[in-house]
From TrEMBL:
<keyword id="KW-0732">Signal</keyword>
<dbReference type="GO" id="GO:0005576">
    <property type="term" value="C:extracellular region"/>
</dbReference>
<keyword id="KW-0645">Protease</keyword>
<dbReference type="InterPro" id="IPR000209">
    <property type="entry name" value="Peptidase_S8/S53_dom"/>
</dbReference>
<dbReference type="GO" id="GO:0006508">
    <property type="term" value="P:proteolysis"/>
</dbReference>
<dbReference type="Pfam" id="PF00082">
    <property type="entry name" value="Peptidase_S8"/>
</dbReference>
<dbReference type="InterPro" id="IPR045051">
    <property type="entry name" value="SBT"/>
</dbReference>
<dbReference type="InterPro" id="IPR023828">
    <property type="entry name" value="Peptidase_S8_Ser-AS"/>
</dbReference>
<dbReference type="GO" id="GO:0004252">
    <property type="term" value="F:serine-type endopeptidase activity"/>
</dbReference>
<keyword id="KW-0378">Hydrolase</keyword>
<comment type="similarity">
    <text>Belongs to the peptidase S8 family.</text>
</comment>
<feature type="domain" description="Peptidase S8/S53">
    <location>
        <begin position="3"/>
        <end position="358"/>
    </location>
</feature>
<dbReference type="InterPro" id="IPR036852">
    <property type="entry name" value="Peptidase_S8/S53_dom_sf"/>
</dbReference>
<keyword id="KW-0720">Serine protease</keyword>
<dbReference type="InterPro" id="IPR015500">
    <property type="entry name" value="Peptidase_S8_subtilisin-rel"/>
</dbReference>
<protein>
    <recommendedName>
        <fullName>Peptidase S8/S53 domain-containing protein</fullName>
    </recommendedName>
</protein>
Length: 360
């Protein structure tokens, strides 16, 4: 089916060339004007991945795009590690596109921060890493004692001001060290409460059991995760402080506020997850080639796709916030398309050179 059941394709396509939309947001978070890089361009999308991405389907999409006469290909799909170029599906497809004057822009991968993790290594591909932008999202947890802890999440829920009981452990239940374990998240105990979970995945169990909120440890603080109920990720020190309050207070309560949009003065910086070089296949060619915005990117979303990867999250919305080199890739493809419109006779190498040599 051509229907976007995952949302990823809608997000990347709208980033490259989506129309101008006023008053776009994620449930009021990150409100503003949204637009793709070249909103006057035409988009051809090719659905190549179901549960897996087969090499045959990826190459078929390259063949179709070349036959359809596209000017630029952006592909936010990749391997987990680099392979020889004659076995690299995207390198092969990109080579055929290059021969026909079409530049292929490719996501570098999300295997960072370890070195030599990028799988996009072919010299003819424009390989894109992900960097932060000067906007980030913060979520605050207010404890019953008045202390406020700032964490990270994309929390569009509006239950502001409602203090709820705070729960962490289950005394006496065998095998249950915390409330957010399979078989331990008893709806009779957690319904209507805010849970302290030892993992971000605890929110899935919490929502299913009827909890009203979650606090979880989150060390990847240069990105924010879309949550399926009011929730906030905390660095280990703040997480431990909230857990300590719960353990030392007779009737602990807390409230979780809707996410705020704030300025990140450290941006731009390469995201921790972005795959690094060096190029382990073609040693003389530096990879990735450039970085582009790939953290907390608001873009279009399929209304039938899950917003948070939680099967119990039934919300439907036309926008979502994602992070990854998948999000960075279409930013650069938009620049390439703009250059191609100004210089229709430029080769893929000329466009790639212009982008790389003018980046800063």
């Amino acid at each position: 089916s051509a229907r976007d059941l995952q949302g990823h394709g809608s997000h990347t396509a709208s980033t490259a060339a989506g129309s101008v939309v006023k008053d776009a947001s994620f449930y009021g978070v990150a409100r503003g004007i949204a637009r793709g890089g070249v909103p006057w361009a035409r988009i051809a999308t090719y659905s190549v991945c179901g549960l897996t991405c087969s090499s045959a389907d990826v190459l078929a999409a390259f063949d179709d795009a070349i036959a359809d006469g596209v000017d630029v290909i952006t592909i936010s799909i990749g391997r987990r590690s680099a392979v020889d170029l004659d076995r690299d599906t995207i390198a092969i497809g990109g080579f055929h596109a290059t021969k026909r004057g079409i530049l292929t822009v490719h996501s570098a991968g999300n295997g960072g921060p370890d070195p030599a993790t990028t799988a996009s290594v072919a010299p003819w591909l424009l390989s894109v890493a992900a960097s932060t932008i000067d906007r980030k999202f913060e979520s605050k947890v207010v404890l019953g004692n008045g202390k406020i802890f700032t964490g990270s999440s994309v929390n569009g829920f509006t239950e502001n001001g409602e203090e709820l009981p705070l729960l962490y452990s289950i005394n006496g239940k065998i095998g249950c060290t915390t409330i957010c374990q399979p078989g331990c998240c008893d709806s009779r105990l957690v319904k209507g409460k805010i849970l302290i979970c030892d993992s971000i995945n605890g929110q899935f169990l919490a929502l299913q059991a009827g909890a009203k909120g979650v606090v979880f440890p989150y060390v990847e603080l240069d990105t924010a995760s879309v949550v399926s109920l009011p929730a906030a990720g905390m660095d280990p020190k703040r997480f431990d402080a909230i857990a300590s309050y719960q353990n030392s207070t007779k009737n602990p309560v807390a409230k979780i506020l809707k996410s705020d949009t704030v300025t990140d003065p450290r941006a731009p910086a390469v995201a921790f997850f972005s795959s690094r070089g060096p190029n382990v296949i073609v040693y003389a060619i530096l990879k990735p080639d450039v970085s582009a915005p790939g953290v907390d990117i608001l873009a279009g979303w399929s209304p039938v796709a899950s917003l948070s990867d939680d099967p119990n999250d039934k919300r439907q919305y036309h926008f979502n916030v994602l992070s990854g080199t998948s999000m960075a890739c279409p930013h650069v493809a938009a620049i390439a398309a703009y250059l191609k419109s100004l210089h229709p006779n430029w080769s893929p190498s000329a466009i790639k050179s212009a982008i790389i040599t003018t980046g800063n």
